[in-house]
Amino acid sequence: GKLAETGDMVQNLLLLAKRPIDVAAAYRLKVELHAVGTEYKEAVQSGLMALSQLGIDIPPHPSAEDVNAEYSKVWINLNGRPIDVIADLPPMVDPARQASMRLLAELWPPSYFTDFNLVVMVVCKMVNLSLLHGSTHLSNQGFALLGWLMGPVFGRFDEGYRLCQLAYGLAAQRDSVLDHGRTCLTMALTSSWTQPLDVSLGKFRDAI
Asked: Which residues, 6 or more positions from 182, have their beta carbon under 8 angstroms from its beta carbon?
C-alpha cells in the first residue's frame, strides 16, 4: 500500500534502465502502480510509451478504422486456418515480443476506462503477436478476450463464444492460477451473450 514509495522506486529503475526491454519492464510496473491508484489515463500513457520502446506504436484514442484494420489482421494471419490452430502455436522466444505481451496484458484493463477502441486494439495486437511470433502463457488471455469482444463489437457472438471456450480450456491446462482465473472471468462475460445465465454465474464463481 505504499504507493508513493513504490513510485519513487520505479522512477529509480527508469533512471538505471538502459536497454529498451528494461525500460519497458519498468514502465510495466508504472502501469500496474497507476492502475492500483485508479489513475487510468496515466496507466495508459505509461503502457503506450513502453510499447513504443519495443517498436509497437498504438494511438491512445484509435479510430474505428484503426480498430477494424487490426481486427482484419487476425484473419489475415490465420490465413484460412481453423481457430483451433491456436492450440498448436510454437512457443514465443523473442524477449522483446514476450515483454510486449506482458505490457499489453496489463494495459487493457486501464484502457477500458479511457477508450474502448483502445481495448479492442490492445486485444487484437495480443492475438496478432501470438499468431505471428508464437504463444506465451498470456496468449490465452488475448484469445479469450478477443472471443469476448467478437460478439458485441463485431456481431460474431457464437464464434466469439467458441474462441473464448477454446482459450479457456487451454489456460486450464497450464499451471498458472492467474491465467486460469482471468480466462475464466472472460468466459463468464462471453457466455452471457449466448448461454443461460447460470453458466455465466458459475464461471464468475470459478474465477473468484
From this structure: 141, 144, 171, 207
Total-model pTM: 0.91
Which pLDDT does position 174 carry in this prediction? 78
For the segment 150-195, what is each residue's pLDDT rounded down to a tens digit?
999 999 999 999 999 999 988 888 777 888 899 999 999 999 999 9
Would you say 85 and 95 are in contact if contact means Cβ atoms under 8 Å apart? no
Q: CA gyration radius for the chain?
A: 17
**What are the CA-CA distances from residue 76 to residues 71, 72, 90, 132, 146 (Å)?**
9, 6, 18, 11, 15
Q: What are phi and psi of 173, to 5 degrees?
A: -80, -15
Q: Which three cell numbers stand for residue 188?
A: 463468464
DSSP 3-state of 135: strand
Give the total residue count for the chain.
208
CA distance linking residue 135 with residue 154, whole number of Å: 24
Amino acid symbol at 30 = K
Record the cell numbers describing residue 56, joined without a space. Answer: 509497437
